[in-house]
Amino acid sequence: MDPQPEITAGELIDRLSGCDRDAPVRLAINPFFPMAHRLAHVVAATDEDGRPVIFLAEGQEQGAQLGYLPPDVAVALTWQEPDVAPPHRRRSARRHDSE
Questions:
Q1: Helices (H), 17-96
Q2: Which of 34, 38, 68, 93 has the lowest tally of Cβ within 10 angstroms?
Q3: CA-to-CA distance for 73 and 27, rounded, in angstroms?
């Protein structure tokens, strides 16, 4: 299976163009222990082959890692299965007479 292709800057701009411009941008990190991080930096650079690449990074300040990724986001990213509550079994009505 081929790895998922990288998103280009143009594709990212296209995807973000329909979003609320005032919404904060966060990073979803680590599918096996999904966490949310604040985005603090955008850096244009070149990779080892001299091609342009853009890095999005969290800051070094306290609180850059916000905590666990919301479950609905992890499901949308296919990092976890939707949680389905087990079927509810009706309990019998038993009285405990302690008097």
A1: 71-76
A2: 93
A3: 11
CB 69 within 8 A of CB 37: no
* Burial grade of 39 (CB within 10 A; 0-12, 13-18, 19 or more): middle
DSSP for 70-92 reads PHHHHHHTTSSPPP-PPPPPPPP
Cα(54)–Cα(16) distance, integer angstroms: 16
Does this model's pTM top 0.70? My answer is: no
Residue 43 and residue 55 in contact, taking contact as beta carbons nearer than 8 Å: yes
Q: pLDDT tens digits for 14-26?
A: 999 999 999 999 8
In this structure, are strands 26-29 and 65-68 parallel, antiparallel, or unpaired?
unpaired
- CA terminus-to-terminus distance, the chain: 68
**pLDDT tens digits for range 10-66:** 999 999 999 999 999 988 988 888 889 888 899 999 999 999 999 998 877 766 788
* 10 token code pair: 């143009």
